[in-house]
Amino acid sequence: MTRTRTTSNKIEASTRKRLPQRIGKTQVALLVRFLNLEPRFISSSPLAEWRSGDSSMYGMFYENGPYLLNPDGKTLRENPVSWNKFVNILYIESPVGVGYSYSDDPNENATLSDDNSMEENYAALSDFVNNIFPEFQQRDLYVIDHRWSTKGELPVKFKGMATANGLIDYSHNINSMMHILYFHGLMPFSAYSNLLDTCCPVRSNEFECKFSEHIDWPTFPTPKYQNDSCFDTLVSLVLKYYLGSPNNGYQIYQDCYQQPVKPGVQNNTYPLSSNDPFLGYWCFMDDSLRTYMRQNIEDKYTKQRFTMRPYFDKAIEAKVKSLIYNGDTDLHCNHLGAEWFADEVATGNNLPVKQSRTEWYYQLDREYQKRMAGYQIKYGDYLDVITIKGAGHVSGADRPAQLFQLIYNFVNGNDYSTPVIVDPVDPTSTPKAATHSLFFFALFVIFFYHGYYA
């Protein structure tokens, strides 16, 4: 049966027993959902949808999934702070070409854009809830993503959304990044001062300098004005101290080798045929990303949304709670820009400051005192902005226990400093799940292949 978007916005359903199943001839995505083995979670716990800017498999195996990949790249160990302890997680690979998602039509050029990705993600989630796992209908839904969108109707209770180190506003991100480069010692004062003098010669506050006003975002990286010395200076500094720096922009306090190094753990994690120029080193450098993902999706992708402001406005209007959290050592999607964005959203929606900037704490287990985990600001009842102390872009890998407590309390409506005690793993013992193979792990994973006609 031929299906079009005009006749249905849902994808034909895969079944749980016939896998894989060929559905259509366009944009086919692989969806993965973990089954929690405890029946009380299956029957009552919320559904959390996890989408990443790259492959969601990284989040599944290195951040919040029920099992983590061991250094040998072949076996798994149990994750003591898995989010599956309190939510059911649906991991989505998006857009087409990222991770395991693909188009099964060799003659088709998949549409890669913000709008198309929103439609695909909605269709995939709708099919999952309506056809594949109707058990989740009327269940609470939380979306954790770098972007957020909603359209149509889903038989779920949309309770909250969270952005994890997300690029939620291009202008705030570049405006704040230049200050962070300088104040973290990554750019010299002479360069910083020259940038301010060139872009904002008459100023009383350097933080009011809007570098973004010199950029034409739809045609980036091109200037908004011809022969713009501010744009030229900005680009040269970004290339030298950001993109061309040996510093790891995803975690500025960690080294990131740009020269070949001895093959290590990640050489076993990723396919040996990847021709990784960094020989398996885990740094999220552009060349490595493009190699690992097999296709250069970024260069084919059409960016259409340069701020998530309208979607946060809709969430607040619908009384859906929103959480913005950032690792405070991430340069790419930095915490300062996120805080500026949240303040703008709050001001535009007349949200009062319910909790001024203050610390939040976590407690590892009952033997330890509470430790500071970062800072928090609360705007009204529906918008919180959080920093994760010491975490970079991948907060869940850098500070897994803190993130476990943060998300648990977000879902359950608790104060973020409320301890969530889990049984720690004895560091002197061999992980009991270390002998679990990837094949064994696959028994707990259900894969769904979806597609629809353009």
From TrEMBL:
**GO molecular function terms here?**
serine-type carboxypeptidase activity
Report the domain of life of the source organism.
Eukaryota
The UniProt entry, under InterPro entries, shows:
AB_hydrolase_fold, Peptidase_S10
- What parts of the sequence cross the membrane? 433-452
| Any one GO biological process | proteolysis
Tell me the keywords, alphabetical order.
Answer: Membrane, Transmembrane, Transmembrane helix
**Does the record's keyword annotation contain Secreted?**
no
Tell me its family: Belongs to the peptidase S10 family.
Protein name as it appears in the record: Uncharacterized protein
Q: Which organism is it from?
A: Mesorhabditis belari
